[in-house]
Every structure is written in C-alpha cells, then in structure tokens.
Amino acid sequence: xTSDHSARVAVLVSGRGSNFEALxxxxxxxxxxxAHIVGLISDQPQALALEKARHLGVPAEIIDxxxxxSKAAFEHALIGALSALAPDWIVLAGFMRVLTADAIxxxxxxxxxxxxxxxxxxxxxxxHQKVLAAGERQHGASIHFVTAELDGGPVLSQVxxxxxxxxxATSLAQRLLPLEHHLMRATVALLATDDVKCANxxxxxxxxxxxxxxxxxxxxxxxxxxxxxxSGR
Length: 233
Ligand code: GAR
Prior knowledge:
Layout: E1 7-13, H1 18-29, E2 35-42, H2 48-56, E3 60-62, H3 71-84, E4 89-92, H4 101-104, E5 111-115, H5 127-133, E6 138-145, E7 155-162, H6 169-193, E8 196-199, E9 202-205, E10 208-209, E11 214-215
Parallel strand pairs: 1-2, 1-4, 2-3, 4-5, 7-11
Antiparallel strand pairs: 5-6, 6-7, 8-9, 9-10
This protein binds glycinamide ribonucleotide (GAR).
Glycinamide ribonucleotide (GAR) is lined by residues 13, 15-19, 93-94, 114-116, 141, 180.
C-alpha cells in the first residue's frame, strides 16, 4: 500500500466476531494504520458479529449458504458481494466455511485467515484439544494466506504462548483470544503499511522473501501477558 491510500478491508465471519470487533477498534483508535473496514459478510444469519457490525456502523450482509441451491451458487453470491466492496484485503475472522479454488481465485494473494494454532500444526477444528492431546508446551495462533487447502496456505504471522500444566481446552481458548486480537491488529497494520505479496506459495515483504512466519508477540511474555501496560495496541 502507498501511504496516501487507506486500505479497504472486508471481513468474513460466521460467529461471535471478536476478532472483527478488535480490528475495528484498532483501526478507529489508531489513525496511523492506513486501513478501514468497508464491510462485513456473514454466512450465518444468526452470527453475533452481524449485531456488532450494525452497532459499530459497519455495512453488514448475510450470504446464507443454506439459502442457495448449491455451493457454486453460494460462492457466486459471495464473490459478487465481496467484489462490490472493492477490497484491498479480505480477512477471514472466524469464517468456518471452506472455500473452493473458484471462490479464492478472484482474490488470490489478498485473502488471509486467522487460525487458532501454530500452523502447520493442527489444521481444522478442535485445535486446543489437539495441543493438549499432543502434550505440547506451546500454543498460539497463525494468520495465513488462503488457498484451497484447508488452513494450508503460506503462513504470514504468528503469536505464541506457553501451555500451563493446569490448562484445559477452555482456558487455552480464553487465554489465546486476546493474543489473536493482537495478531490481527498487527498483521493488518503490516498489510496496510508494507508491500506484502503472496504468489506461487511464497510471501514477500518489501521485495524480500519471508522464510519463517513473522512472530508478532513483541511486548508479550511467554504466557501471552503484556510485559508492560498495553496502551493503544
Ligand atoms: C477464533 O478463535 C479464530 O481463530 C477461529 O474462530 C474463532 C473466531 O472467534 N477460527 C478458526 O477456527 C478458523 N479455522 P471470533 O468470531 O470471536 O473472532
């Protein structure tokens, strides 16, 4: 993005919308980040995120998969709604539907997804249970570019936290969520201010190939707690 352009961000959701809300708050309260949310689309008519968007004055739309005769028809409607928003970036923030290559292709390299694991570990659902079952000492969240492979696209950024002896799946999810919000804000800020590209399975930032996911937990300790008071982050 160039500095005189405010990146247009569209958000896809299916549920609660806390990542959307955190991103909206960050972009409203941090004018230094040249990005704004142009619309939210939910595939679930009952998604709490829709209420949040209306409350925040963000244009919100429902594209209900069950109201379409086929997956192709649903994706056609979704592509139309997304294209109408003319987004620079599309952020999947708790969007729980797997898109086909046909739906991703028009937005290839511009679509990112937040996932609650340290990818490539633990794709799909129940990531917190999988971390505990594997006896892992570290957990985290990742933001990756969306490809037709479920949670399999190139990973741009991550945030990490230590797993405690006392953790269960609920406590892991609760402790990880604010870190996801941090990761979301920091990653969208990066997309808005730097030249980030993804093509042929590779990510470049300002022309340099990214060899490892960015670790965006700066200012957090290994339990995911702020090392100092979080002001405006
Ligand atoms: C988040 O934990 C996000 O990482 C996860 O859904 C939750 C949505 O929360 N996404 C996935 O599992 C995608 N595979 P939110 O609606 O409150 O932002």
